[in-house]
Each structure stands twice: as structure tokens, then as C-alpha cells.
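REQUEST ID: PR-0412
SUBMITTED BY: lab tech R.K.
PRIORITY: routine
TASK: structure prediction, single protein chain
INPUT:
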Amino acid sequence: MSSQEIPEEVLPAEQDAAHGAVEGAGDPFADPGLPAHRPRIQDIDERAARRSERAVAFMFTLSMLATVAFIASYVIFPVDQIVYIWPFGHVSSLNFSLGLTLGVALFCIGAGAVHWARTLMSDVEVADDRHAIEAEPEVKAKVLADFADGAKESAIGRRKLIRNTMFGALALVPLSGVMLLRDLGPLPEKKLRSTLWAKGKQLINMNTMEPLRPEDVVVGSLTFAMPEGLEEDAHDFQTQIAKAALMIIRIEPDNIKDKREREWAHEGIVAFSKICTHVGCPISLYEQQTHHVLCPCHQSTFDLSDGARVIFGPAGHALPQLRIGVNSEGNLEALGDFEEPVGPAFWERG
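STATUS: complete
OUTPUT:
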């Protein structure tokens, strides 16, 4: 397309003339300079500045409240509670509350800082020449001076409400990270010191789901039992059975070497925890002739005729024994709970 075909109003020469172009305006690489500074309403109206200050302080305060709510959520909501929240559906109440409160806390800090910068801090653009990476003493002095000017223009000293709420929000947010340390392990409680076994609770055969009677257990057999009242469809079934699962074995009383084991048994029927004391695997391999049981995970071996003591493998201590007897109906029942904690590494687990 030739210059004759271009309308005169869009020709560079005509544009330059129309706008009073100066010498060098036709240079495509000329420095256009900075646009003229236009003051904001907050720069000329102190009431508007106060409104912006209160808005920033509100966001910082909301961040502090959200952080407190984050910490409170750890205490209020159980880890296994499921709730329905539209439109998300069924979600963990703990995870939802933690995500919501932490998100609000972090968002409000960021939103408050952005609003502060856009409405109250100086918005004058400053151009400077590029310089070598290593700063000269004069440059260092200039940077420090610019920093001091920036701090002064940010009004952080004069806007005490913003300053104090910002410090409060920034001080509380790290507490969210401290609370996350809780997930490194269970809280110090006594829930691992006890199981569902108690005096009078019948032994329920896990295969037939019927109460066990002494005649149901023959010499050399291995039977698994759980406490009366524990249902497989219960929400905490896996948690409870992991502590309460039993091995029921019948040994000739004369072949029981350990005195306490013989006293806690009923006519040679002994009940030991099924949970290995190494890493908590379920034990199920029984050798009739030797009365040894073997953990399939790491081959820890226990002698059930001698107090279930460890005779091989990495397990640290013997299997806990449950004292049993017979109730008025002729069914096997517990005479109490285990006297020692079930499972591995108890003292490290709380």
C-alpha cells in the first residue's frame, strides 16, 4: 500500500504536526518518559485515606480471627467426622475447616497488603539507570535513603492501626504451621493403654460370631476371638479390633511352663493378643507340636506355652495375655483387660 493510499490524518508527518512533535519524535526508540502523576482520592482526602486504613485493618484482623479458628478446628472437630456441605458433598469436617480458615488467613494478609499498597503507599513511579551488580558507596547510600523514604511514604509509622493489625496477623499465621506438628503423631492420651476387653465380656468367635464355649476349643486348635458388643459394621471397628483381637489356643495344662499363664487360663485354654509386638502385624501361623506362633511379617516367634515370650525375631517383648474364665451360661469370658499395652513400641506411641 503506497503513501498516497493512506489517509492524511494517519500519516506520521501529519500526526507530528498536529501534536506539535519536537525534534527526534520520529525515533521509534526514543524514551517516551513517564506519564504525569495523577493523585488518588486518598492523597487529597484524609477521610478516604481513613476508610482505606480501616479496610486494611479489617482484613488483617479477619486474618487473625481465621488463624485462631484454624487452631480451634484442631480441637473441635474429630478426625473421622464426615459432614455434608453443599456443593462439595460429603467431606471431612476437620480438613474442610482447616483449609477454609487457613485460606482466609493467608488471603486476608495478601489482600490487605495489596489494598494498602494501592491506596495509601506512594504510587509515584521512579526511573533509575542500570548499574553494575556491585554497588558503589554512593549507590548504597542512595538505596538506604530510598528505603527510608519508602518507609516514610508508606505511613507505617503514622498509620498505627494498619501497623498493629498487620503485625498481629503476621505473628499469628505461623501458629498454623506449629499446629500442623500435631499430625506427626497422636496426642498424648491413654487410648492405647486399654482395649474393649473388660470383666464379664464374652469371647466371640470371629468365624461364627457366636460366644465361645470351652468345648469349642480343642487341644492343638487356633481360634480368633473379639469382644462381645463389637460389630464389624461399626465405624471404629478397625481401630478397636487392632487392639482387641485374640488368639485362643488350648494346651494341656501340664505343658504350660509359665505359672501366671496357667493361672490365667481356663482348663488349658489361653488367650493372647493377636497383635505382634514388633510392628503390629496380625499373627496367624501356629505350630501345634511346639506351641509356637510366627508373625508372617518379620518372623518374630513366640512360645505360647511359656508366657508367649519371644524366642526369635525382632519383637521386643512377649504377647500380652488376657485372663479368662467361664460365666454362668458356660461361655468363655474375660476377667478384665490386658494388664500391659497391646502392640508395638507403646511408649513411643503415647
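NOTES: Residues 8-22 have pLDDT under 50 and may be disordered.
REVIEWED BY: pending
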